[in-house]
């Protein structure tokens, strides 16, 4: 498990024009607590979906995601990009060659994600081939939640090659039930340490990005990541409590007050 850094300054916090009752604010991992659900992207490559073949003899440790695709957590991935997203898993059963033979290249300066890269958890991650030309708009991938949520975040990286127009920026945008933007935050990722540069490998898949509200006053129904070839891991989200939960809490408070 890597030593996470809340790296990288938040570039912007922008409020949407939708039904938000309070301002979007950045969220850090410590804001999520035990009620958070985490999509780790484990148990997909080589389990739920077949591994991608690389020529007639070699099988990679990655699977192409269907579009849309329901992830184990119930979150639905979708994209309007022609290239399919992948789930890469170094613990996937059945791939050929050793783990050192495979990697996911971000860019020359962004590095290559490999089997010794520090991950937030496990050995799997999500990768999207999107926005591959720096002369075109950045790509977008969307995740829709099975329930309304009040905060969401993930560890991310993106193409980082400034001289070729890849700025390493990932933007996280939240939407309400009608698809209206509630606001967004952005970070500059710093890439990963390539296999030939280590060990050690100080830069892992560890740039955090998250958002929510200071009081949880509104619900998020879906999010989008915008960037050049975005990768992500440990997608965290906190569901909005059911009305019954609020009722139970209110009754508990009443009981405490009466006992006093």
Name the CATH class.
Answer: Mainly Beta
Our estimate of the beta-strand percent is 35-45%
Which oligomeric form is depicted? single chain
Which of globular, elongated, flat, extended, rod-shaped describes the shape? Answer: globular
Give the beta-strand count.
20
**How many distinct domains?**
1
Q: The CATH topology, please? A: Jelly Rolls
Kindly report the average pLDDT value.
85
The main pleated sheet reads as: 14 strands, antiparallel
Number of helices: 1
> What gap, in angstroms, lies between the N and C termini?
46 Å
- Percent of residues in helices comes to under 10%
**Unreliable sequence segments:** 1-10, 17-21, 244-260
Cα gyration radius (Å):
19 Å
Could you say which structural class the secondary elements and strand pairing correspond to? Answer: mainly beta
Series of secondary-structure elements, N-terminal to C-terminal = EEEEEEEEEEEEEEEEEEEEH
So, CATH architecture? Sandwich
Structure in words:
- The chain has 260 residues and is mainly beta.
- The chain has a single domain, classed as Jelly Rolls.
- Helices cover 7% and strands 39% of the residues.
- The chain has 1 helix and 20 strands.
- Strands 1, 2, 3, 6, 7, 8, 9, 12, 13, 16, 17, 18, 19 and 20 form a 14-stranded antiparallel sheet that branches.
- The longest helix has 17 residues.
- It is globular and about 50 Å long.
- The N terminus and C terminus are likely disordered.
């Amino acid at each position: 498990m890597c030593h996470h850094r809340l790296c990288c300054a938040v570039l912007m916090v922008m409020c949407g024009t939708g039904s938000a009752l309070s301002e979007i604010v950045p969220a850090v991992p410590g804001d999520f607590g035990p009620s958070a659900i985490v999509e780790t992207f484990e148990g997909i490559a080589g389990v739920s979906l077949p591994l991608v073949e690389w020529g007639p003899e070699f099988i990679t440790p990655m699977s192409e995601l269907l579009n849309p695709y329901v992830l184990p957590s119930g979150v639905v991935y979708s994209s309007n990009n022609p290239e399919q997203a992948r789930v890469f898993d170094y613990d996937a059963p059945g791939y050929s060659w050793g783990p050192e033979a495979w990697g996911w290249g971000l860019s020359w300066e962004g590095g290559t994600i490999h089997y010794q890269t520090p991950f937030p958890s496990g050995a799997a991650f999500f990768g999207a081939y999107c926005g591959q030309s720096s002369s075109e708009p950045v790509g977008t991938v969307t995740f829709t939640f099975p329930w309304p949520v009040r905060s969401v975040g993930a560890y991310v990286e993106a193409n980082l090659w400034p001289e070729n127009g890849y700025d390493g920026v990932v933007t996280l945008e939240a939407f309400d039930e009608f698809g209206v933007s509630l606001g967004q935050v952005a970070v500059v990722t710093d890439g990963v340490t390539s296999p030939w540069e280590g060990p050690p490998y100080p830069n892992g898949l560890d740039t955090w990005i998250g958002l929510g509200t200071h009081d949880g006053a509104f619900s998020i129904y879906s999010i989008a990541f915008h960037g050049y070839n975005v990768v992500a891991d440990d997608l965290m989200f906190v569901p909005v409590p059911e009305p019954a939960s609020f009722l139970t809490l209110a009754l508990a408070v009443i009981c405490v007050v009466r006992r006093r």
